[in-house]
Structures are given as structure tokens and as C-alpha cells.
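PROTEIN DATA CARD
Card holder: Receptor-like serine/threonine-protein kinase
Chain length: 775
Origin: Rubroshorea leprosula
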Amino acid sequence: MVVGARRNTVFFPATFLSLFVTSLLLTNGEAFGYPSIVKPPASWTNVVSTDFSYWESAGVRPILVNGNFVCGFHCKFEGTACLFAISIFPSSFGGNSSFSPQMVWPANRNNPIGLWAKLELSQEGDLTLQDADSTPVWSTKMADKSVLGLKLTHEGNLVLFDRNGETVWQSFDHPTDSLVIGQRLVSGQKLVASISATNWSEGLYSFSIDDDGFVASAESDVTIAYYRFFMYPTRSQTGQFYAELTKISFGLIFPGSGVSFIQLGCDGHLRSFGWVESNWKGVKDFIGDQLNRCDYPLACGRYGICLEEGCSCPEPVEKNGPMYFKQINPSQSNLGCYPDNPISCESPQWQRLLELKDIDNPGLSILNSLANIPTDVQSSLIPQANHLSPAQIPRRKKRQNVGVVVGSTLGVTFSVLLICTFFSLQINNNAKDVEEDYLGHISGAPMRFSYEELRVATNNFSNKLGEGGFGSVFQGTLPSGVQIAVKCLDGFGPAKKSFIAEVETIGSIHHFNLVRLVGFCAEKLRMLLVYEYMCNGSLDQWIFCRDKALVLGWQCRRKSILDIAKGLAYLHEGCRQKIIHLDIKPQNILLDENFNAKVSDFGLSKLLGREQSQIVTTMRGTPGYMAPEWLNSVITEKVDAYSFGIVVLEILCGRKNVDRSLPEEDTHLVSLFKRKVEDGQFLDLVDKCNEEMQSNAAEVAEMMKVAAWCLQGEYARRPSMSIVVKFLEGKMDDENAYDFSNPPVPAEVKTLGHQMDATAVSASPLIPSILSGPR
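Structure generated from the sequence above:
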């Protein structure tokens, strides 16, 4: 297959073609004449089209097109250097707009290809890129996988998938300098800026995420951070921290309206971009709003000095002395400087240090690190080549150099020891804080164990049950014979907050549908929580299981929903203070030996006084389960009701809220639920892996009403969990118990009552007050 412009049989005038292109931009790839999915074997060659093409005029030779994304060869106008890449183009624009795809994912950014290069999808399923001379350039390295095809998703994700529709490889796992809507930045990944707008190779700036939040660095080294945004990042089931870019948020950062992607620029700025006035324009500068120009380590390039009035090179110390650095381009001072003589860390007798005086530049220490330049404790020093020959260096000077080296070494050693001692004391103080300052003042705290007691109880932590948000969980047995689950939390910071929240929240409360905290251990750096043992594990293992022998039946699922509602109702209304859980999801619902469901993991919970109706707090929880009011950080206990609604849907449908292994239109359960309700086909969503669920479709439909009721966009219109309990127990026959006079229409889902299949409704008697769905 040869990539290029499609040969037209009729010549279209340019104006007509422009209108024709505009009308197509809201359609799928096939409307452009390019597929979104291909199966192996297939190959494409990078050749220039001889026909007029709006793609070619934008430097793009498409292979796959889907929605607003195109995947293919992307070439510079001034040359033949090309990349295999994905670009995003505007969804719509006026007649005066230009066709402007913006590259968001290049595969071979550090190794451009030329004309006649070939992309090949082999029969074995590996996607490889070769230059014209057959030199290997890039590969997915998936030849040993059973790949059925290659597709470009509507979100801009290039995916290799197998016969089961499972993702084998995807471009979303290999970000470059940009993220698109729906893409995550995961711990261990990073965005790396290009060298310049015309040089796509990896540059000096990077942006990543860790357990504290976002960090922007120079030279792709997180130890040279020039910006940090501390937040409470989300942790996945695999233990990785991540932030997902949506239309309204990226972690706790809000990218602005109309955003299509974010990009780390060659200047170190992280910006969100949208299509504004016929062009891609920056909507928000995440980092630039917090930093000054000179706070960026390379604002004036390598060896450059950033001053308020502009950029300059290091000046000689001696008046009228030699200039050791010169500007790369005097007309563009921000490009930096270059040394007149090479700088090297070898042969120190040939070098001496020059002090830069009267320089107050926060980014200078980073600049020095980039240049491998030593830094004095009091001032910034830059080494320069010494123009004296060995014969011209006096012996006394050499002895002085030896003294300087020895003195510097001793000084550095002492400084390192001092710093290590300081951090050791800080860590010990932190541990002491946990033991004394916090736990000593918690009323009704549970039993306190020693680390040795728990080590013996767990047989030296040998039986691992799984991993939680901040550590691993082990099974154990107390001397009394009581089985326990011991959660070992890792480190301080968020883990310490989680530990305190657990002890403070559930240490003194007891309810049948809450996992009981038996005790805790806090010894120096060790923080352990001891729970009652739940032998049937977490709910997600039972409702998402494809093994029919292990799938929960309808009655058990119905009871689980009621159990969860009872536990939440107690937290919200039955305690001395309101307790908002903030992380309700199937993984945090545990089942005992009789399959009684109990709410667990209170590491993110918040306490509210009885007089408080809402609280302002940082965003926390699991994406997909978080209520929309989190965007303004002002929340009530109704955020738990929203999460409960998502969990109810998952229990009834037997699938995850977000399942990327499904076709794109079915990925998000709530959106699919809304569509099925509008089409009168919502019973299609009932879990098909269990015949009992199918035979009780009418009751399942009633439970779907509860989910719809809890998923309303306006939190005030969601029911309290105590009302949900009454509804589930059939105790709402008194219409005065709740105001049904104003039936809500959830933003996510239409009221189900009028959409129900007549035969399904008649199969189960309903009380008059709920025939049209929950109000």
C-alpha cells in the first residue's frame, strides 16, 4: 500500500475543495477515504503525492483517520525529514480557516525518516518502521503477540489488539510531549519537550508525576526540578500514580474551556491548547502562571545569565579581562552562550574558577548542574580554561591547588554528613509525631500492637493478600485464634495522612457493614493497620469475573447493594460526626464468609461537624467514581451517593465503569446507560454471565432506578443514603417520607420509569409512588 494523496477522477476547483473538506471534518476516517482499522499484513510507503491534497499541503500523508485524529507520515515543509506520528485537527472551522493538524504523538522523534521509508504491520502483528535503505528505525516489539489488527481510536490512541479485543500495545502508554483528552500520565512515564519548534528531537525539559504530585525538571532529571505542584494523586490497582486529562481537569489543574490537548513546550512551559480563531492557541499556561521568566533553568540557554533586562553571557571578573563565553546569536540572546575554549572536568591543574558576582538568579544553580559545573556554598562559580602552559605554573601554585582540592573535598564530605544527619532527625521526628502527637490524642483509639506481635501473627508477613492504596495487605492470626488482615503502609506524606485518617475515622465506630479496625501499630518508620479478616475478598473479584462458577447471583448482588447503602447511611448520619468516605468503589467493598458486604479503606475520608453542610478539600478519590462537584472542591456527603450510583451500575451490569477493551462507544458505562435508556434498551445492560440476573430483569430494572437517582448532576437532588436504604427495604410506601412532587431528570440519565418495557414492569408489583422512577 502506498501512502499519498488519493487520485481524483474529476478536477475540483480550490474553493469547492475547501468547502468539501470543511463538510467532512466532523465525520469519521472513512469519509476521508482512509480507514480507522487495518488487519495484518499491510505496509505503507512514504511517497509524495502528485495530486493536490489538503493533507499534503499540511505536511501529512495519512494512513488511518478517526474522528479528529490522523495517523501517518508527518513531514517538514522545508525538507524530507518525516515522522510516523498522530496529529489532531480541529473538529470544525470556518471557510477562512486553514487545515492545521497538530502533532501529538511522534514514534521516531529522535530518528526522522526520509522518502520511500516503509511502515509495515507484519503477519505476526509487529508494527515496524524502516528507512528507505531498510535500516530499522522504530518498532512496537510485539512480534510474539497474537495481534489481530491495528486501529486508531476516536480518542487518538493507536492500538494493537488481539482476537479477544484486548489491547496488546497502545501509544497512550508511550507519551512524548503531549497528552490528549482521555490519556493518562502515569508514574514512570514523562513528557519530554522537543529541542525547538523545528527540531522534534527530545529536548532538555520533562514533566512527570510521583506520589506527591507533578514535577517539571531540566535534563529529564527529577532531581533538577524547577517546578512542583503538590497534590493527592490517584493510585491505580497496579500501585502506579496517575493523572488523566479530561475536558475539565488534569489532576487538580483545570486546563480551561475548549481544550483539545496539553503540550510541554521547548521553553519548559506546560500549556493547554484549543482551536481558537482558526488556529491552535494556548488556553492556559500551567507553569507560567506560577513562575517568573528567570525561574526557568534555561530561559537564556546554556551558560546564559537571565536578568530582568534580558539575557547575557558570564562577564570577566577582571576589568577588560578576556571573554570566556560568547553569545550563540547576538540577535537572539535567549539561545544561550558557548565557551570560547572547551570545558572539561579532567586535568584540574589546567583550570581555575571564576566567581560570578552580583548575580541573583534562581535558575543559575540548575544551569550549573546542566553544565557539570561545581558550585561554591556562598556563590556560583564557573570553570574556565586556563591559558597558561604547565611550565608557566609555579610550584607554589600547584601546592595551592592541592590545598584547594583537599579543603573542598573535606568541606563537601562534611556538608553531606550534615545533610544526612538532618534528614535522619527529620524522619525520626516525623515518626515520633505519628506516635505521640496524633495517636496519643485520638479518643477511643483501637488496640495498639507492637511490630513484633504483628510480625509473628503474620508469619513474618508471608501470606500476601493484595495491595492497597499505600501498601500491601497480609493475612495473619492473633494468639486468640482471631484471623486478621494487616495493612503495612509505605513511607510518610500521603501514607501518613491515610494512616491517621483510618485510625481517627473508624477506630471508635462499629457497624455491621463497616470493616472493623481491630488495632494499629506505630513504631518509628513502621505504620500498620489491623482489620478483621474478610475471607471472600473484595467485591470487584466477584462482579467482574468471567468464570460463571464464581459470579454472584441476583439475591447476593441485591443484598450487597443494600449492605453498602446501610454502611454509608451510618457514616453520614449515625456517627457523632459525619464521615464522608470519598473513595467508594468495588475494590473497597469487602465480603465476609456469608457474603455480607462491608465498606473498607477510610484512608481518604473526611470528618464534618454536625453543624457543617459542606466542606472544602483537595480533590481525592478514584477517576470514574468522582462526583462532578469535585471540580470546585466544595463537597458534601452526596459525593458518596454519586459513587454509590456508579457501583450499583457496575454490580447490575457485571462490568467496569470504564472498560477500554470494549468498542469506543461502549467504553464508559454511564454514557452507554444513558444511550440505552433513551433507546428503551437498558435491559440489554443486565449482566449476561448469570441466568439468575436475566430471570430477575424487572427487579434489576428497579435497582437501575436507584443508580439513576444517585447519579444526578446536582448533588442536592440526590437522595440521602438513609432514604436509599428505605427505598431498597420497601419502606417508602408513605409518600410524605420524601418529596416526590418534583421528579428529577438526571443530567447523566433520563428517568427510567417511562422507558421500561411493559411486560418487565408488570412482572414485579411496584408501589404507586415509584412507578415513574425515583424522584
